[in-house]
Specification:
With 384 residues, this protein is an alpha+beta fold. Helices cover 20% and strands 21% of the residues. The chain contains 8 helices and 20 strands. A 5-stranded antiparallel β-sheet has the order 1-2-5-4-13. It has a 5-stranded antiparallel β-sheet with strand order 3-14-15-12-11. Helix 1 runs antiparallel to helix 5 (249-258).
Length: 384
């Protein structure tokens, strides 16, 4: 069933079209596949310090945001660093890729596919008109980003072949790994031609109309699984969980220093921002964990169990300082998302308890509770 098409303007923020938040302009910087080099991490740290609120905020699409950007010069600095390869396409460069690919697990190595798609996407002028919510994904077969609601996703079935998903549903269209980028772009072109007022493929009356004609096999409902992206990973990797996905400029520089050398396969030193607001260092230094802890960064997977939107004072719609309340009131061991209003921005796709601020307290499972009783109530809840 299609979703209702949207008639208001696409307001997804970028660098040239920022969002007017309560704490000042918000700029979103796309990182296709979540991949960001050590040098670009340092550039983002400097931009946050010099032009914004001093922090870098991770998003649920593996991108980053700078808040309170009240001083000029951000676009020129990001362009010089290669973080804005196309001013016309900046808001449509939304690409997920399995962040642990090549580090630990997975059926196929999808490293490089997001970057390849990004270059090809920016080379097609007509695709600059895609909505800012349109999302591409490359899943290495484990099913992690396949569950993130991408409009079009290539999911590996073998090391060199996979299937195409539309809005998370397998279409039965088998595509070789070497043709995955071309296949996803073909779907995007068809969507751009047919979409009318739709922002997402799920909003089309017939989503399969964006597929090319030809034989397709029987669709298969494969499991979705998100492997831990925090803690020791593979032989040399390590993942960190910044509190509520927020990194200081100093912490970003620590990540850059730990990601600043090439790995054993010759890939340049880099970090990977995941859709779950963690950061993976695929080939970290031997003393990485100690240095991360010294910088105030957690390598405990449990640190991702409690999430929250930006809340007050950053959002004018929020009814509470939800991050302060989440840190103070939500007990350890409870997987919950604390939101400042019914929009529940930043809500994770994994099972969790919704804790939503209202006048007079927080609503949990249909009950409105004063903040003073929140911890007592949540500790009695069975985790999803």
């Amino acid at each position: 069933m299609s979703s209702p098409a949207r008639i208001r303007a696409d307001a997804c923020p970028g660098v040239f079209a920022t969002h007017d938040a309560a704490d000042g302009p918000l700029a979103r910087v796309r990182l296709p596949g979540g991949v960001v080099s050590a040098e670009r991490l340092r550039v983002l740290a400097s931009c946050a310090e010099d032009l914004g609120d001093g922090d870098v905020h991770l998003t649920s699409r593996g991108n980053v945001q700078l808040r309170g950007v009240t001083r000029p010069g951000l676009a020129s600095r990001l362009t010089a660093a290669g973080l804005l390869p196309s001013p016309t396409h900046e808001r449509v460069r939304n690409v997920l890729a399995s962040p642990l690919s090549g580090v630990h697990g997975g059926t196929a190595d999808v490293r490089g596919l997001a970057g390849e798609l990004d270059v090809a996407l920016c080379a097609e002028p007509e695709l600059a008109e895609l909505p800012g919510r349109f999302l591409f994904a490359f899943d290495d077969g484990r099913g992690d980003v396949a569950g993130e609601g991408a409009d079009v996703c290539w999911r590996a079935v073998t090391s060199d072949a996979g299937t195409v998903l539309l809005a998370g549903v397998d279409t039965g269209w088998s595509v070789a790994r070497g043709e995955a980028v071309a296949a996803l772009l073909a779907v995007a072109r068809e969507f751009a031609a047919q979409r009318g007022t739709a922002w997402r493929i799920a909003e089309l009356a017939d989503s399969t109309a964006v597929l090319p004609r030809g034989p397709r096999s029987e669709p298969v409902d494969r499991p979705v699984r998100v492997d831990p992206t925090v803690g020791p990973l593979g032989d040399r990797g390590v993942g960190v969980a910044p509190r509520f996905g927020q990194l200081t400029a100093a912490q970003l520089r620590v990540l850059a220093s730990l990601a600043g050398h090439a790995d054993l396969a010759g890939h340049a030193g880099h970090a990977v921002v995941t859709p779950w607001r963690s950061v993976v260092l695929p080939d970290a230094a031997p003393d990485a964990v100690a240095r991360l802890h010294a910088a105030g960064l957690s390598t405990d997977p449990a640190a991702l169990e409690i999430t929250a939107c930006i809340g007050r004072p950053g959002c004018a719609k929020s009814l509470a300082d939800v991050r302060a309340d989440a840190a103070r009131l939500v007990p350890a061991g409870v997987r919950a998302h604390v939101a400042g209003c019914a929009r529940r921005c930043g809500r994770p796709s994994a099972p969790h308890l919704d804790v939503v601020a209202e006048a007079g307290g927080y609503r949990v499972g249909g009950r409105l509770l004063p903040a003073s009783r929140l911890a007592e109530s949540l500790v009695r809840k069975e985790n999803p």
